[in-house]
Structures are given as structure tokens and as C-alpha cells.
Amino acid sequence: MIKGFAAVEQWNNRMLLAAVVAWAAAQVLKVVIDLIRNRRIQFERLVGSGGMPSSHTSLVIALVTSVGKYVGVNSAMFAIAMVFAMVTMYDAAGVRRAAGEQAKILNYMMDNWKNAPEMFKRNLKEFLGHTPVQVFAGAVLGLGVGLLI
Q1: Is 26 contained in some domain?
Q2: Are 1 and 48 in contact (CB under 8 A)?
Q3: What is the pLDDT of residues 63-97, one digit of tens each?
Q4: Please, what is the Cα angle at 76 between 72 and 77, to 5 degrees?
């Protein structure tokens, strides 16, 4: 077997492990926060996008933190991870959030269009992006996981 491709060997990579653990922790927190807010469990939040905290941000910040910790902040790998993180966080709070807001407006318009064709009766997904607070919370979670692992 080619070195590095065995499933068990991949989990020896602390940088990958930190990223996955941070993502999973954020997804579980989304369910817990939603339970507290709405008094019901929505297991689809375990895999869904949007919400508090940003799992995309948690993942990339845990990766950046662990790369800095294990490879060094002056490495090319750290620079790549940092740029990847910046693009991901900008996209989460900017482009994807705007798309979610547009989906809300379009869903409202279609709900109130009396003669809407049947093909427009389905709702667009509104939970796409994040508020800056959700991105910040994801960054704090990712930083913590990256430092711990």
C-alpha cells in the first residue's frame, strides 16, 4: 500500500484530525444551539450549512492553527492554509450569506404569487451563509481545537 493512503495512517495527521474535529464540533454545536433556541432537535443541522458557529470557519482555522503549530508559521504550507481560510471565511460571510438572503426574498415572492407556475412552488434553501458573529465563533472554536490537538 502507498504510504499515506491507509485510512488509519491519515488519522495520524494531526492537522487533518484537528480540522475534522473542529468541523464535527461545530456541527454538533449547531444542533445544541438550535435545540436551546427552538426547543426541538433538528438532526439535519448535523450536516447542513449556515448557522452558529460556522463549521467551514472552524475547519479552516483549526487547519491553519495546527499547520502553524506543527510546520511553522513561516512555511509555505501555512501561507496556503491561511489564504484558503481567508477565502473560505469571506465566502461564508459574504457571497453565501447574500445568496441565502436572496433565497428568502425569492421564496417570499413565490409564496405570494397567486398564479405561480408549479415549477416555482418549491422553496430555495435559505441557510447558506453566516453572519460575522457566526464566522467569529467558528474561528474561536477552530483556534481552540487546533491548539489542543
Answers
A1: yes
A2: no
A3: 999 999 999 999 999 999 999 999 988 887 766 66
A4: 70
